[in-house]
Structures are given as structure tokens and as C-alpha cells.
Description:
Oligomer: single chain
Organism: Hesseltinella vesiculosa
Main location: membrane
Coiled coil: 64-91
Helix content: over 70%
Keywords: Coiled coil, Endosome, Membrane, Protein transport, Transport
GO biological process, one term: vesicle budding from membrane
Amino acid sequence: MGGAHSKNKITSQDQAILDLKIQRDKLKRYQKKINVVIEAEVKLAKKAVEQGHKKQALLALKKKRYQEQLLEKTEQELMNLEDLTQSIEYALVEKQVMEGLKKGNTVLQDIHKEMSLEDVEKLMDDTAEAIAYQEEIDQAISGQLSAEDEEEILKELEQLQLDAEMPQVPADQIPVTMTDMPQVPTHVPKEPQPQPQQQKAQKQREELPAMLA
């Protein structure tokens, strides 16, 4: 509660501007009344002329003229009030700008204290040396590679980029298709034909019982 009250506290400058605006509004209301009186005096003057009352018409016109003079004075006072109000408001804006510049200058000075000119120069020198060293490395590597090597390296880089963009699927999750299965035979395999030596041995085994008898 206390913080909100102090935040919304009206300063003397705010009060001065408020008073000027209140006075301005009063003058505007007074001008409206004067205009009503002027219109009324004009009507009275016309009516008196129609009735042949010259003196009454002349008196009404004099009153009208007096009210017009008052209206001119209030108009001038109103302009002065508005000019003064605008001047105060502009001065307050300038004050806020100056306070902002002052704070910014203080912050800038603090930054300069934390970062000396020697530190900046050293940082720039270190950066320049690092860039020069990197350029020397690039030139040394480039001088040892042929055009074909450069082309192969670029192709390898492109392949690595493609591999990085493709999602990695574990081997145990790769689906097995029918083309990966062994082919099932569709016919009965033929019996292997016996070789000549095998035929001779078979014939001897068949003749052996007859020879023993």
C-alpha cells in the first residue's frame, strides 16, 4: 500500500499543471456565458430598432461591445494559460530526458572502468593473431591436397550431411522383407549320379558273395 501511494504521489509540477488546466476550463466556461450575453444584446438592439427605441438599441449595442472586449481579454488570457501549460509540460519532458541521459552516462562510465583501453587492445590483438593462425592452417592444408582430394572431401562431406539428416533406425527394428528370406525350392531335386569309381566299387561289392560261394 505504501509503495503504491508513493508511486502515485502528485508532485508540485503536476499540481501546477493541474491548477492551470482548471483555470483554463473556467475561462472557457466564462467565454460561453459572454457569447450568450452578446447574442442577447444583439436581439435586444434589433427589437428596439423595430420598435423605434433608438436609445435602447444604442445601449444594447454598447453592452454588446463591452462583452466583446471582455471576450477578447479572456481569449488572450486563455492563450497565455495554454502556452504556460505546454511550456511546463515540455520542461518536465526535458527534465526526464536529462535524467535519462545522466543515468546512461553513469552506466557508460562504469562500463569503461571495467573495460580498460589496454584490455580492448589486447583482445583485438589476440583475435587478429587467432585469425591469422587459422588462415595459415587453412593454407597449409589446402597446399597439400590436390583437386581430386578436394572433390573427394566435398563428396564425403555431402554424404555425412545426408547421413545426419536421415533418421537412425536400430538394426533390430529394421523390418525383414520376403526378399531377405531364402528361396523355397519348387521341384524335387535329382539324385546325384554315381561317379565311375563309385560304380566300379559298387559292382565289386555285388560280385563278392558269388566269388566266396
